Amino acid sequence: MSANITLHRAVALRKSLWKCSRQSIGISRVTRLFSGKSDDEFTSQKRLTEDTMSQSLRTMQYAVRGEVVIAADRINKELKDDPNSHPAYDHIVFTNIGNPHSVGQHSLTWPRQVLALCNLPDSVGIDHPQAPTLFPSDAIERARKIKHGSLNDQGTGAYSHSQGVISFREDIAKFIEDRDGGVPSNPNHIFMSNGASRAIEMILTTLLADETCGLMIPIPQYPIYSATIGLRGAHPVGYYLDEENAWSINMDHLETQLADAIAKGIKVNGFVLINPGNPTGQVLSKESVCDVVKFCAKHRLVLLSDEVYQENVYDENAEFYSAKRAAHDTGLLEV
């Protein structure tokens, strides 16, 4: 019975709309038919403007895409339109972001082969007779393991656990454990994310509870930290790296910067450590990392250790030492 009533109402509504269109009432009149509003109740004033939008977003600065990049884009277009427009140079090399492929670095082949096989149907991928002639055997076996084991034959497009596929997290935990000399790593404490930037945004959203909060960040630093802090309406508490001493960290300076921020009423509740440095490239010594870990423990600061470039160590006399290993070695790690 209810289905028939619904059908009759739908037919009546359709006839009403058809009558409106035939009488050239137009879309605005049809809108008023449903809203019950008259002409004088509508306004052309925009809801979303530069004045009504989030002012934190409006004033946020993200230097890698700021004025220098805008000027570079303009010059790049001018060079394409007229190669003689800038006699001193004939092209622009964009180095504002870590984008090595744009300057000639070749992609890592094996991971892409595995990804390709995971995305292909089995009949034209891992089970195709010619697959061994196109892909190395270990890539085929890894893809088979991921498709039929890790992903349970659900395909790469299916939703997974919110922390990430458990077998992937187990692989990550094994890597961390091997890296840190056997210090245990729990896959249930690992959260995978869509790139490092997304992880940073999520943790800062959690950490910066209100506009009184602050976060200690290195200067110079990759600007996603200062930009996200600004977006949250919180306070960046900068600490300067010592350029004269290989961009090292001065502990007395950290104490001074923290004390000054607290005196201003800022609730400093976190500390960002970037090691190896970005954009400075330095690799901190074991002693420096341990000092930072103890500093954070002393002042009850959440330590955000950005170690995304840990494999990019080019100094033969330097060795990467993780913050987790430092916390373990100083007796501060809760297992």
Question: What does the secondary structure layout of this molecule look like, with pairings?
Answer:
Elements: H1 2-22, H2 27-35, H3 55-59, H4 67-81, H5 109-119, H6 131-134, H7 137-150, H8 166-179, H9 196-207, E1 213-219, H10 224-231, E2 235-240, H11 251-263, E3 267-274, H12 286-298, E4 302-306, H13 323-329
Parallel strand pairs: 1-2, 1-3, 3-4
Order of helices and strands: HHHHHHHHHEHEHEHEH
Q: Choose one word for the global shape.
A: globular
CA-CA gap between termini = 63 Å
Roughly what is the average pLDDT, rounded to an integer? 87
The oligomeric state is: single chain
* Radius of gyration using CA atoms only: 28 Å
Number of helices: 13
Question: How does the helix and strand content classify structurally?
Answer: alpha/beta
Order of strands, widest sheet: 2-1-3-4
Helical fraction equals: 40-55%
Annotation, overall tally of beta strands: 4
Major sheet size, sense and barrel closure:
4 strands, parallel
What proportion of the residues form beta strands (DSSP E)?
Answer: 5-15%
Uncertain ranges: 1-7, 20-34
Describe this structure in words.
With 335 residues, the protein is of the alpha/beta class. Helix content is 44%, strand content 8%. It has 13 helices and four strands. The chain has helices spanning 2-22, 27-35, 55-59, 67-81, 109-119, 131-134, 137-150, 166-179, 196-207, 224-231, 251-263, 286-298, 323-329, and strands at 213-219, 235-240, 267-274, 302-306. The chain has a four-stranded parallel β-sheet with strand order 2-1-3-4, with helices on both faces. 17% of the residues are buried.
